[in-house]
């Protein structure tokens, strides 16, 4: 027996695990089922990727059915443009669906592709979606050669050009219905054949008694080998990786009942428990179906529209107006100003493009673009405004993946997710011990009861409910925040928001309105021609003060800007018709010789932006800010619970006015540069403070990124920034206190859900150990426990949100 087993293992393919017909295909005493598997082994070995085989046993895909395919169509320019996510003079980014991906070895190999070809710069796997994103140098390896390389190592991409235009089918897996149908049919008939046993009818004819027993065994086989197969496969995969997952105790219970029943039927020592076994599988599958339906109805999956509530400037018939990014259509003409991100793949229609693709490629070197060239979504314009024509919908652009890209995920794993994963792991081990001890005690009393106790304990005590409480509570909270135009990057942001104990506010564009404040000009009179030149300059900036000046000036924005430069938090400059114009702070606009004291304000009230033509200051724009609705109330609430700071790049002219909002105990800092703001956040964090930074997302990017939670407040400009953790519609800033309180309440709901899950398992275990809980009842209760926790978490968050005015039911 042992030699037979050794022979079978010896003749299994070293690469894929399939059986080898003979020993004819071999290398170094390693045998292969075909030359394809042998070739892959040689490729990996030559590239020093032999560790692939140490991660898992026979992890590769069989090449018996592999045939070399023609990929010449990938050289077609139109198809190339359809498939790739991004392309420039050096770098191309493409995402493939890899259905063969199935284990940790696959992930390891696919993320080490750069060792197989020097043209591949980086590859990253999304295992849940079976997707592989590759960044490569198309001058060293073409798209066709890349696909051929993947196919040659057993990971041929699934390329369906028609699927590019169609949405994926999200229908429920039909196999689950088939398994439920078979289990239900067999369960019903086994119960029918077992009526004599239920009614204690003594069958005198031994032939019928055995005949019905054999029928029950035959009916139990498809349930055992097909309907319950997922539980066994999942448990086996876990054991291969030395992990006891939550399907292990379930599959063990099914196995015990089946073997015990089969032995009784075959030895004619009893009627068996096939009704319990098939009923158990049937109700487990019904519960699984119910769970999936419940989860679908409570789906918190977000698409690109969730993180782009902002609008873009669209030009039509020489008129400009704002339009939601999600409503952009192919053919729309959009205006992109300095530091704005291109929301969709577009062609440059006018202006000079200087595109920073660092969000996409990781390289900060700007790429110069001229009229007619393609500009990919995700690039940020540096310089004067440009006009683009959209050629691809936002939903199909690379920008939709940006905010959740790993490049910007600085937060660690959720504390509650990590905790539930640890608890789930040891929970199963403890349940196995309880089941073994309880059944061993019952064996001396009643063997049948011992069997029921063993299986009931394994089934009823499931950590599923524990594992589901965190994602469903935080997922629903994320949805509720979204309904209130508070768009969070991920669920861990909710946990961080609940921990905050100090809050830092920016002023301009955050606490103050962008478009409704009063603005006046003091200085030399500006004629219409000069106003149009200034308007052309400030029209390239997205800063709130620049937008106010733009709206204030008469005339049209019609001149091209050369050498445009915007210094964050300081000012803007550029050459318009050979005139160098500067708008910004006094230090930025002036020098030792050109400042005229005539333009020094008589009072120090309001925010000012100085103006110079050809290094001569001719005046300044004065802004008297109007604060947002409800800002005083929200600050009053926050000061009762948190330490509040104001840090602004403006002067202290409105200090007395701000003290009325923040209170006399508030800490107010003025004339702060972007670097000052960043250093201020760092110093607070060094004092073990958890910081919430609320800014406008423009010159606050560094501070937003450094803070524990960075919230970018915006009105109607496309101020998307991956540096922030959340985007808040400016009209809802008065709800900030409610958002923080709701985050804390969500954490409490998770803790209560944990308690409910433990309480349920404790009650269920106590009944199972006492022998009063049958396996079938346990099978019904197990999915119900998960559903009850999910429903509790969802309803609780909804009720608390309604109480805080964040949701209307």
Secondary-structure map:
Layout lengths: L1 H9 L15 E2 L2 E2 L3 H12 L5 H4 L21 H7 E4 L3 E7 L6 H7 L9 E7 L4 E7 L5 H10 L21 H20 L1 H4 L7 H22 L1 H12 L6 H21 L6 H24 L6 H4 L3 E6 L2 E6 L8 E4 L9 E5 L2 E4 L1 H4 L5 E3 L4 E2 L4 E2 L4 E5 L24 H29 L3 H14 L3 H20 L2 E3 L3 H8 L2 E4 L12 E6 L4 H11 L5 H9 L9 E6 L3 E6 L2 E6 L1 H4 L17 E7 L2 E9 L6 H11 L1 E5 L7 H8 L4 E3 L4 H13 L4 E5 L5 H6 L2 E6 L11 E4 L6 H34 L5 H29 L6
Parallel strand pairs: 17-24, 17-26, 24-25, 26-27, 27-28
Antiparallel strand pairs: 1-2, 3-4, 4-6, 5-6, 7-8, 7-9, 9-15, 10-13, 10-15, 11-12, 11-14, 16-28, 18-23, 19-20, 20-21, 21-22, 22-23
Helix pairs in contact: 7-9, 7-12, 9-11, 9-12, 10-11, 11-12, 11-16, 12-27, 15-16, 15-17, 16-26, 16-27, 17-26, 17-27, 18-26, 19-20, 26-27
Tell me what the structure shows.
The protein has 809 residues and is an alpha+beta fold. Among the domains are: 2-55, no CATH class; 72-164, 2-Layer Sandwich (Alpha-Beta Plaits), CATH 3.30.70.100; 174-300 and 415-465, no CATH class; 305-408, Calcium-transporting ATPase, cytoplasmic transduction domain A (Distorted Sandwich); 518-624, Calcium-transporting ATPase, cytoplasmic domain N (3-Layer(aba) Sandwich), CATH 3.40.1110.10. It is 44% helix and 17% strand. The strands form 6 sheets. Strands 16-28-27-26-17-24-25 form a 7-stranded mixed sheet, sandwiched between helices. Helix 10 (229-240) crosses helix 11, helix 16 runs antiparallel to helix 26 (736-769) and helix 19 (528-538) packs antiparallel against helix 20. The longest helix is centred in the C-terminal third of the chain and has 34 residues, at 736-769. The chain is globular, with a radius of gyration of 34 Å. 41% of the residues are buried.
């Amino acid at each position: 027996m042992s030699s037979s087993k050794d022979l079978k293992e010896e003749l299994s393919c070293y690469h894929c695990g399939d059986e080898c017909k003979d020993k004819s295909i071999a290398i170094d005493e390693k045998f292969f089922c075909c030359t394809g598997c042998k070739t892959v082994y040689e490729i990996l070995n030559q590239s020093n990727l032999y560790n692939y085989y140490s991660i898992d046993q026979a992890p590769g895909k069989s090449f018996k059915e592999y045939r070399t395919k023609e990929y010449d169509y990938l050289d077609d320019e139109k198809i190339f443009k359809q498939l790739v996510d991004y392309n420039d003079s050096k770098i191309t980014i493409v995402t493939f669906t890899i259905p063969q991906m199935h284990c940790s070895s696959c992930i390891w190999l696919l993320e080490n592709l750069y060792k197989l070809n020097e043209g591949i710069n980086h590859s990253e796997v999304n295992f849940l979606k079976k997707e592989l994103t590759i960044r490569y140098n198309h001058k060293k390896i073409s798209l066709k050669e890349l696909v051929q390389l993947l196919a040659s190592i057993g990971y041929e991409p699934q390329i369906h050009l028609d699927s590019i235009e169609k949405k994926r089918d999200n229908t429920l897996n039909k196999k689950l219905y088939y398994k439920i149908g078979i289990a239900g049919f067999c369960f019903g008939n086994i119960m029918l054949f077992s009526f004599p046993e239920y009614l204690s009818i003594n069958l005198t004819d031994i032939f019928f008694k055995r005949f019905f027993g054999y029928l029950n065994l035959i009916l139990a086989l498809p349930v055992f080998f097909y309907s319950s197969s997922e539980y066994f496969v999942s448990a086996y995969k876990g054991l291969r990786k030395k992990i006891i997952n939550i399907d292990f105790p379930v599959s063990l219970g099914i196995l015990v009942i089946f073997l015990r029943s089969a032995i009784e039927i075959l030895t004619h020592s009893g009627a068996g428990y096939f009704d319990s076994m098939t009923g158990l599988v049937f109700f487990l599958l019904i519960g699984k179906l119910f769970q999936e339906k419940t989860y679908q109805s409570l789906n918190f999956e977000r698409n690109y529209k969730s993180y782009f509530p902002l609008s873009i400037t669209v030009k039509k018939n020489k008129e400009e107006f704002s339009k939601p990014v999600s409503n952009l259509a192919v053919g729309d003409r959009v205006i992109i100003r300095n530091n704005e991100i291109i929301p969709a793949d577009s062609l440059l229609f006018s202006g000079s493009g200087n595109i920073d693709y660092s969000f996409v490629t990781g390289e900060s070197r700007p790429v110069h673009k001229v009229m007619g060239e393609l500009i990919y979504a995700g690039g940020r314009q540096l310089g004067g405004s440009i006009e683009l024509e959209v050629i691809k919908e936002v939903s199909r652009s690379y920008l939709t993946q940006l905010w959740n890209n790993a490049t910007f995920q600085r937060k660690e794993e959720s504390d509650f997710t990590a905790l539930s994963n640890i608890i789930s792991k040891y929970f199963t081990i403890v349940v196995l011990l309880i089941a073994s001890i309880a059944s061993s005690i019952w064996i001396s009393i009643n063997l049948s009861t011992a069997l029921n106790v063993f299986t009931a304990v394994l089934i009823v005590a499931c950590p599923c409910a524990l594992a589901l409480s965190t994602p469903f509570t935080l997922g629903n909270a994320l949805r509720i925040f979204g309904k209130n135009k508070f768009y969070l990057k991920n669920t861990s942001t909710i946990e961080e928001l609940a921990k905050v104990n100090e809050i830092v506010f920016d002023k301009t564009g955050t606490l103050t309105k962008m478009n409704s404040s009063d603005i006046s000009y003091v200085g030399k009179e500006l004629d219409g021609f000069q106003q149009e030149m200034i308007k052309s300059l400030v029209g390239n900036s997205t800063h709130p003060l620049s937008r106010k000046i733009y709206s204030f000036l008469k005339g049209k924005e019609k001149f091209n800007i050369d050498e445009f430069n915007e210094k964050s938090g300081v000012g803007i400059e550029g050459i318009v018709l050979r005139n160098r114009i500067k708008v910004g702070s006094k230090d930025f606009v002036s020098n030792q010789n050109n400042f005229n004291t005539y333009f020094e304000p008589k009072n120090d009230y309001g925010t000012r932006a100085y103006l110079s033509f050809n290094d001569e200051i001719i005046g300044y724009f004065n802004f008297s800010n109007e604060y947002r609705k409800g800002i005083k109330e929200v600050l009053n609430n926050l000061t009762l619970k948190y330490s509040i700071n104001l840090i602004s790049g403006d002067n202290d002219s409105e200090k007395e006015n701000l003290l009325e909002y923040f209170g006399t105990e508030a800490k107010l800092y003025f004339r702060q540069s972007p670097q000052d703001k960043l250093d201020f956040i760092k110093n607070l964090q060094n004092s073990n403070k958890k910081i919430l930074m609320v800014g406008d997302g423009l010159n606050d990017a560094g501070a937003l990124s450094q803070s524990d939670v960075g919230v970018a407040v915006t009105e109607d400009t496309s101020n998307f920034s991956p540096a922030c953790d959340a985007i808040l519609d400016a009209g809802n800033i008065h709800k900030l206190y409610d958002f923080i309180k709701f985050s804390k309440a969500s954490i409490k709901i998770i803790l209560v859900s944990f308690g409910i899950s433990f309480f349920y398992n404790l009650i269920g275990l106590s009944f199972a150990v006492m022998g009063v809980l049958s396996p079938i009842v346990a099978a019904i209760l197990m999915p119900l426990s998960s559903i009850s926790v999910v429903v509790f978490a969802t309803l609780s968050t909804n009720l608390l949100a309604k109480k805080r005015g964040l949701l209307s039911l």
